[in-house]
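From the pipeline queue, job 12 of 40. The input is one protein chain; the requested action is below.

Action: predict structure.
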Amino acid sequence: MWSRSYWGFRRPTTYNVRTGSALLVHEYEEGQLAIDVFDGGRDEPAWHGTATKEIKFKDRKDPKPLIDAAVTEILQHFPPGNEAN
């Protein structure tokens, strides 16, 4: 599932969970895609949409389906006020 977040691209992310005396670490790559729409008449940003997802090895080999899914998810919230669920 995509989540909305600030723009970036494939940053490594780590989180730690402390369970008793053991420390579990899970490292993963996170991909983020942003789409910005600008109002040319006003020369200012009009809308910003983002998507974030953990990147798997298979996604790196063929990213097109993942990118297509992210663009579709982001554009479900465009134009502003069109919050399709």
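Job complete. The radius of gyration is 17 Å.
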